[in-house]
Structures are given as C-alpha cells and as structure tokens.
Amino acid sequence: MDEKLVKKAEKLRDKLISSAQTIGISILTPASEGQGMPDIGFAPFIRQEGCFYIYSSDLSSHIRSLIDGQPVQFFLIADEGSSQNIWARVRLKFSATVEELSREDAAFDGLLNNIGAKHGPVMDIIRNFTDFHLFKIIPERGNLVTGFAAAFEVEGRDFDITTHLRQG
Q1: Which CATH superfamily is domain 3-165 in?
Q2: What is the pTM of this model?
C-alpha cells in the first residue's frame, strides 16, 4: 500500500471519529415488527478504549432490534457542511459485537456520567428512564472511505487499515 495515502487516510479516520457526535445504526427489524425490513437510526455516543457506548430508548425500533440480536452495521459519516466534496465524504462503516450493560454493571454509572459530560445535561433527565439501555459496541471490521480512489478495509477497535480497495 502507498504509505502516504495510508497516513492521510489514518488522519482523516481519526478526525472523523473524534468529531462525530452520533453513530448510525443500520439493522434489520425483528420478524415481529415487519419481517426483517431494513431500519436505520442514530444515537449519541462516547468512545472509550476503542469501544463505542450508546444509551438509547427501546421506543426506537432500531434499539429493539439491537436487543433482539438482529444483524447490524454501524457507520460514521462526515458532516455535509464541512465536506469538500459531497460525493466523497469521509465515512466509516463497520460490523461489531454488541453487548448490553445492565444497570448493576460496575461501569454503568461512570459510562452514563461520561456520556452526559460529552452530550449535555439531558442525561440527568433520562438517566433513570427504564426504556433506556446502555450498549457497548466493539468494532470488528469494516470499510473506510476518505475520498475518490481512497477506500480501505479496516479491522479491530482502532480501525487499522489492512487493504486499499481498488475495484468495486
């Protein structure tokens, strides 16, 4: 791989991850809610030790699908307004292992505190809502696009670049 291209891609990947406020969720609905139809949603997140954490309500169909264990992919995408070219927005799509953390988990309160510190005082309102669930998202593999002819396969919690994709 072209080392200069990879370094540029790593820089754009890191900027995307650090600047994003929400993570996209692309998931199939449970059979009971539409026979496995595609669904999407978004959730504010924090990232710690290479994992993403979201705290969202099961009133949203994509969260019910996460609870149900449906196949899922996650994505981050650069803001349209700050992108140089709308056709080649920086974006990261990945598969992950998802774990729900119970309210009794030792890390639960600290994670909610960190989510609140990043996303504001609404956490004080929703913290004890029983329809909300805390999920740990552990990245496995995916694709990173940083521009035209700049698409890569990535792996692991740090989205290490493994392959420069050259054909569709």
Answers
A1: Electron Transport, Fmn-binding Protein; Chain A (2.30.110.10)
A2: 0.94
